[in-house]
Each structure stands twice: as structure tokens, then as C-alpha cells.
């Protein structure tokens, strides 16, 4: 997966956030758009009732890290 369009086709927002997070390391030229996509996906996952801990687990980060990721 290498494009924003492909990223946005991932239905599961927690998975979409995780892929966006991984792509930040692989596609630095897309970093601003990937950070926005990750933030939106994190918010969407939590609005669907997923706990911060569950979302953070998908991203392989701490739940406290979500604060700056969506900020």
C-alpha cells in the first residue's frame, strides 16, 4: 500500500490508522497527509466505541501517545 487513496479504502479505522502510521516511515513526502489520515482514523475508531488502549495496540504505541497523534 503506497498511496493515500489506497489507505482510505481500509474499512477498519484502527487498521487504517496503523497502516498510516507505518507509512509515515516509508513515505516521508506524504507525512502531512498521512498524519491527518491517521488522526481521523483514530478519532473514528474511538467514536465507534473502541477504547484508546485497543486503538493504541493496533498502532503499537501507548494509549497516552494517541493524544499527540490526534492533536
Keywords:
mainly alpha, 0% strand, 71 residues
Q: Can you give a write-up of this model?
A:
The chain is 68% helix and 0% strand. It starts with a helix and ends with a helix. Helix 2 packs antiparallel against helix 3 and helix 2 runs parallel beside helix 4. By secondary structure, it is mostly helical. It is built from five helices and no strands. The chain has one domain.
Summarize the structure.
The chain has 71 residues and is an all-alpha fold.
Q: What form results from the Cα inertia axes? A: globular
What is the count of helical runs? Answer: 5
- Proportion of beta-strand residues: under 5%
| Oligomer kind | single chain
What's the SSE blueprint?
Blueprint: H1 4-7, H2 13-26, H3 31-47, H4 52-59, H5 66-70
Helix pairs in contact: 2-3, 2-4
